[in-house]
Specification:
By secondary structure, the chain is α/β, with parallel strands linked by helices. The chain has two domains: 2-34 and 282-413, Lyase, Ornithine Decarboxylase, Chain A, domain 1 (Beta Barrel); 105-273, Alanine racemase (TIM Barrel, Alpha-Beta Barrel), CATH 3.20.20. 29% of the residues lie in helices and 24% in strands. The chain is built from 13 helices and 18 strands. The chain has helices at residues 7-12, 20-27, 36-47, 67-75, 85-93, 110-119, 128-137, 175-184, 204-217, 247-265, 277-280, 313-317, 409-413; strands spanning 2-5, 31-35, 55-60, 79-82, 101-104, 122-125, 142-146, 188-193, 225-227, 270-273, 284-296, 299-304, 323-327, 336-342, 351-359, 366-369, 390-394, 400-404. Strands 1, 2, 11, 12, 13, 14, 15, 16, 17 and 18 form a ten-stranded mixed β-sheet that branches. It has an eight-stranded parallel beta barrel with strand order 3-4-5-6-7-8-9-10, surrounded by five helices. Strand 5, helix 6 and strand 6 (122-125) form a beta-alpha-beta unit. Helix 7 (128-137) runs parallel beside helix 8 (175-184) and helix 9 (204-217) runs parallel beside helix 10 (247-265). The longest helix is centred in the middle third of the chain and has 19 residues, at 247-265. The chain starts with a strand and ends in an 8-residue tail after the last helix. The model has no long low-confidence stretch (mean pLDDT 97). Bound molecules: ligand LLP. Ligand LLP is lined by residues 60, 62-63, 81, 104, 159, 161, 195, 198-199, 229-232, 274-278, 313, 317, 374-375.
Length: 421
C-alpha cells in the first residue's frame, strides 16, 4: 500500500497495525473507523478540565450515539445528555442509570415528556409553554430550565444556539414568569443550563456565556446544578497545523470564576459541561473509494462513494475536513492537482471538498475524511435509497471490531407498506 497523504493519522498511530485498504476490503466502502484510545484520551482530558470538586461531564450523545461509543463513555464514568427518547433509549441500553441522563428537550410532545418521566430522567425545558406542559402532566416534579444568556458562538449560524436569532432557551427577562409557573405547578427547579453553540476555538465567548448563566443562577437560591453546555472546538485544519483549543487555560479560568461564584451563591453546587464534538470527532475517520476522475468545464472532479447521505457536514455548513489518500498499487503520483471531491448522490451540491490540492488521484484510490467521529454517521441518511455505512472500532490492543453493520437492501424497504397488486 502507498500512503500518498497520511501525516495526521500517522502522527496519531490511528490505524495501529491495520491498513485502511484492508479495512475497506473487509468491511466495505464507505466505512466509519474509530480509534478507542483517542476516544478515551479525549474523555479523560475533558474529565480533568476543572479542579472544581463537584464537576461532571455529560457526553453530548447527539455527536455520536453508537452503542459502543456510549458504552465507552459509561466506562469512563461520564454522564450523558439526550435530545430525544431515542437517545434516552440507547443510553439506558448502554448502561447509564436514569440519574446519569439529562434530557435537554426542545419543543416536545407530552408523550415524549412522559417517556422521560417514566424512565426517571431529569427533563430540561426551554420555553414557558413547555414548562406549563410539564407542570400539567407531572405536578410537583423536578425540572431544569435552559436559559438563553444572550451570548452565542459557533462555526456556522445554523449551530449558534444562544443570543439572538435562535429558537433555544428562555429569555432571562421571563424569570418572574418562570417563578410563577414553577409555583403554580409546585415544580422544583433543580438545575439551569445553556449551550452557546457548537465549535468555539477561543475561550472568550464561552467564558462570557458562563458568566451570563451564573448571573441567571443567582435568581434561584437552591439549585442542585448548573450545566454550562458544550461547544468545545477541534482543529479541522490539521494539515495546516491549526492550533488546538487551549483547554488547560480555559479550565483555569473557569475554576477561578466558579470559586468566586460559590462564595457568593453560598453552596458548592454541581457544575456540568456537555461536549460532544471535542470528545468524539477526532477519534473517527471516514474511508471511501474513488470510482471516477474527470474534467467538467474548468473543474477536475474526483467521484467517490461518500455522498452527503454519508457525511452531511460539508454540504450543510460548508465544513472543512482534511483529506488523506491511499493507493493499493505502486503507481506513483508525480504531480499535485486542484480537485473537487464529490459523492454519488443525484445533486450538484453533493460536494465533500472544493479546490483541494491533492496528489493526482486515480480510480480505486482510498480517500480518508478526517475528524468525522462527531456528526458523521449520526447525520447520515438513506437518501437516494443508499445504504448507510458500517462502523468499526480499533480497540486499544489494535483489534478491529464491527460496531454497526452496513445497511442492506432489505433495510431500505423494511418500513414500506405495499399497496398490493
Ligand atoms: N448540548 C446541547 C444542548 C447542544 O445543543 C449541543 C449541540 C451540545 C451540547 C454539543 O455540542 P458540541 O460540544 O458537540 O459542539 N451538526 C453540527 C453541530 C450541531 C450541534 C448542536 N448542538 C455540526 O456538525 O457541526
Amino acid at each position: 500500500m502507498q500512503k500518498l497523504v497520511s501525516k495526521v493519522t500517522d502522527s496519531l498511530n490511528f490505524y495501529m497495525d491495520n491498513s485502511p485498504i484492508d479495512l475497506v476490503e473487509k468491511y466495505g466502502s464507505p466505512l466509519y473507523v474509530y480509534n478507542e484510545k483517542i476516544l478515551r484520551d479525549r474523555m479523560r482530558e475533558v474529565k480533568n478540565l476543572l479542579d472544581y470538586p463537584k464537576f461532571y461531564v455529560n457526553y453530548s450523545a447527539k455527536a455520536n450515539s453508537n452503542l459502543a461509543i456510549l458504552q465507552i463513555a459509561k466506562q469512563e464514568n461520564m454522564h450523558v445528555d439526550a435530545m430525544s427518547p431515542g437517545e434516552i433509549y440507547s443510553e439506558l441500553m448502554a448502561g447509564f442509570s436514569p440519574e446519569e441522563i439529562f434530557y435537554i428537550s426542545n419543543n416536545v410532545s407530552k408523550e415524549e415528556m412522559l417517556y422521560a418521566i417514566e424512565k426517571g430522567v431529569t427533563i430540561s425545558v426551554d420555553s414557558i409553554s413547555q414548562l406549563e406542559q410539564l407542570g400539567k402532566i407531572n405536578k410537583g416534579s423536578n425540572v431544569a430550565i435552559r436559559f438563553n444568556g444572550g451570548i452565542g458562538a459557533g462555526h456556522h449560524e445554523k449551530v449558534i444556539t444562544c443570543g439572538e436569532n435562535t429558537k433555544f432557551g428562555v429569555n432571562p427577562e421571563d424569570i418572574p414568569l418562570v417563578k410563577e409557573v414553577l409555583k403554580k405547578y409546585d415544580l422544583n427547579l433543580v438545575g439551569i443550563n445553556q449551550h452557546i453553540g457548537s465549535l468555539f476555538m477561543e475561550p472568550d465567548k464561552y467564558i462570557l456565556g458562563v458568566r451570563a448563566i451564573l448571573e441567571i443562577a443567582k435568581n434561584f437560591k437552591d439549585l442542585d446544578f448548573i450545566d454550562l453546555g458544550g461547544g468545545f472546538g477541534i482543529p479541522y485544519h490539521k494539515l495546516e497545523d491549526e492550533k488546538r483549543l487551549d483547554l488547560k487555560s480555559l479550565g483555569k479560568e473557569l475554576d477561578a470564576i466558579l470559586k468566586e461564584f460559590v462564595l457568593e451563591y453560598g453552596k458548592e453546587i454541581k457544575i456540568k459541561v456537555e461536549p460532544g464534538r471535542y470528545i468524539v470527532a477526532e477519534s473517527g475517520v471516514l474511508l471511501g473509494t474513488v470510482h471516477a476522475v474527470k474534467n467538467n468545464g474548468k473543474e477536475k472532479y474526483v467521484g467517490t462513494d461518500i455522498g452527503f447521505n454519508v457525511l452531511a457536514r460539508p454540504v450543510m455548513y460548508d465544513s472543512h475536513h482534511d483529506i488523506e489518500l491511499y493507493r493499493k498499487s505502486d503507481e506513483k503520483s508525480k504531480i499535485e492537482e486542484e480537485v473537487t471531491v464529490v459523492g454519488n448522490i443525484c445533486e450538484t451540491g453533493d460536494i465533500i471538498a472544493k479546490g483541494r490540492v491533492l496528489p493526482k488521484i486515480k480510480e480505486e484510490d482510498i480517500i480518508a475524511i478526517l475528524d468525522t467521529g462527531a456528526y458523521g454517521q449520526v447525520m447520515s441518511s438513506n437518501y437516494n435509497n443508499r445504504l448507510r455505512p458500517a462502523e468499526v472500532l480499533i480497540r486499544e490492543n489494535g483489534e478491529v471490531v464491527l460496531i454497526r453493520e452496513r445497511d442492506n437492501l432489505e433495510d431500505i424497504v423494511r418500513k414500506f407498506i405495499s399497496l398490493g397488486e
